[in-house]
Amino acid sequence: MSNQATKGVSIGAGDSDDDEFGRIPSAADVQKTNTVEIMPNQFGYDDSDEEEETKDMGTDYDPPTRTYGIEEYTMSDATMKLFERELGQTSQLRQESKAPAKMMQTFSGQTTETTTETLTVGVEVQINTNKQEKEERKGRKHKKDKKWHDKKVKREDDWATGTNRKIDPNYILEIKQNQEFETYYREANILPAEEFDKFYQILKEPLDICFRINSVDKHFEKTQQEIEDLVQKMKGIDELKDKYPKKLLWYPNNLAYTFNECSRGEMRANPLLKNFHQFLILETEMGRIFRQEAVSMIPVTLLNIEPHHSVIDVCAAPGSKTIQILEQLHQAHEKIPKGFVIANDTDQKRAYLLTHQARRLNSSALFITNNDARFLPYLKIDEHNNNMKFDRILCDVPCSGDGTLRKNLALWKNFNSHLGHSCHPLQLHILERAFQHLKKGGRLVYSTCSFNPIENEAVVAAALSRHIKQMELVDVSKEVSPHLKYRPGLVNWRVYHRGKGKREGPAWYETYDKVPNYKRKVIKETMFTDTYTMFNNETDRPDDMKSDPLNLRRCLRLFPHDNNQGGFFVAVFTKVLDEHEGFIYDDMYQMNAWDDPRVKQKPILDDIREFAEEFEKDLKIHEEKNNVPQELSQQNQILSIVKDAQDQQKQAMKDSGIVFGKMSQIYDNKEHLFPFEKLLETKQDLWVNLQLFYGINAEFPCENLYFQKDTTNCIAFVSEGLSQLMKCQRKHKLKVVNLGVKLFSKNRDIKSPGKYRLLQEGLELLMPYMNDERKIQVSKLLLAQFLDKINFTFEELRNMGHSQFEGKEPGSAVITSGDLYVTIWIGVNNVSLMIGKEEIKSFKFLLINQ
Ligand SMILES: C[S@@+](CC[C@H](N)C(=O)[O-])C[C@H]1O[C@@H](n2cnc3c(N)ncnc32)[C@H](O)[C@@H]1O
What we know:
This protein is α+β, with helices and mostly antiparallel strands. The protein is built from 31 helices and 28 strands. Strands 7, 8, 9, 10, 11, 12, 13, 16, 17 and 21 form a ten-stranded mixed beta sheet that branches. It has a five-stranded antiparallel beta sheet with strand order 18-19-20-22-23. It starts with a helix and ends with a helix.
């Protein structure tokens, strides 16, 4: 039988028409089921449903994937193990068992690595494109060189990711040189001169693997025990020396580990190491552990999130920190927390990748959006148009990423001292916009994986100096564990220009007025310390504040040689005054966001206009409150700048002949609409039918169910806090990627009421409210058999002594054994599992370890 048939039958997700959430087997498929052969070397199952479901609301999902050629235990082995241990029926089953098989497994993941790699590539592309254009103009493009270069970088990347083991490590050490990096950071005085060599040296050493146990997973204590058992075994082996996972002592509740991995050769030679590596891969796939660089775990730990908080992660993809935030929201192990997190990213593909990652948590408190964080629209909290303010905000902004050099070989080649300069305006703009969204008394964490003061303290200082009465840096020294070494933020820095060709060498600038005009495209005023030194003039400041008027020393600098980790920068802010209570900006809003040609696109200018209108509204209230005389009023200044920019843009449009759609048209586009409606408001009948069909009792909080307006393809459940936000949804101009946990998905071929099938990810929420109508108790053995074979005819089941599936209305149902439950499809004369390959593997594992 072809794979095609297997695909149609097993879960039927492949050819989805316009159903974005996958489809269930049609009647024709179900007929085919009887003749399906399960291939001995597969799970008899095509995981296209995985892809199908990650498409979510609208666009195709295309996450980067990696292939690991690892040897896997086979279904038959696993089932066998279970039988051996639990049932003692080995001899008979051995005869029946299929030949053990090998499989290739593909998974996308390794969150932190993806973050920085992709990010760097992004920056690289930008820089290279410019450079390339110039070269083309000058007729100096060396195609051959480029080919050679690309090949070399690929080889190096392969080496770094372990794909190519042939490259000599000495050659890699040669590559790990960057004169500009060395010069820039030596002279930037980011740390005492005598420490520089140690700092530079450790950057050339590979980074330890770090991972975190998913504290939301109900089996997390078991996972922790498994790791501890493995560690004990590894400790007892002399050859391993210190190569075993060690607890990250500063991470709360002992849930994070660091592991000094060795070369693949060494790993092969030692089965325990190899086993552990495979254990890591498997556990990551199952969502029980998350791999994340240690320093990247710090920002969320300093957000102090509580389950009732409203949180926004403005630059969230690929989502390692969003997942940490969700863990904090679920810390009380409530399935439905009061609070929620909006995970936003401007890159649509990455936002979909985030959806994929976060599926491991199945949280009703997650809302994924795809907006530019610089112009994040205000969300309305009530019908009086009051703006929603967040308890917690994370700004893990795009950056040059030089703190990740230990795991990012390509950056050794691509680093240049102007990467940070190009990130600074974007970072500042994102941070300032985030300030506007923070609740009074709330907390905001700004972070980068860069050492560069231009991306760190300079951004913090510029943003703070414009919100001096409103925002403060928090002293978190007492909140950070003594096991984590960090350095205080810098108070002084200079701004570098690497020069221009042979004519002009590099130069450092201490004040903006010394920067020649032609360099001001790269060097901005906000990068200098003198943007804030005016506060030194305030006589009532204590002496120690005079040298550090903005408390920049309260920032945290993480250096790789301090903790044997990567580099990071973290600043924690709180809002002490609301916009209405104090100055919004001490100075006129200087940042010329619209300097950036990309910003000159019409849709973005429209967004800015909306932002400016909101800003002017706040300013008006402030000026009225403070009796600011009309001649000193700053109202309309921004709006008039935006209007000018819009006029210029119109002219540019006319000149170029490019026509942009109107914003209203853009929002009319399905993808940009805020697309959800409350189920009970318009589709009460549907809910009543679902309740009857699935035996869901009246206790279920059905007022938190939402569906996608245009298609009704999918019904999602959201937490209380998100539901509150949905009430005012018509006022929101958010581009939505995903919302809450999906409980039901529509199948058009099947007649109501079984038209909506249950989705595995929503089961945990729904199960406590379902009676036994569509919830079928099975033995461990039968569940294991289902996991092995996926599909049984009624006749086969009858011969095995199970007739409980017969006589039921065809449609979706659940089989449950102990605390495990799996979605199935009851056909006319057969029953099939409705879960993906990865989930099957995960259930098999859980079953064995139950
Ligand atoms: C450092 S990464 C974030 C990593 C993420 N916080 C995590 O822990 O997985 C920065 C992200 O910012 C996004 N980004 C860049 N410019 C943005 C903007 N203007 N608005 C929102 N997101 C932006 C990038 O697409 C990238 O995913």
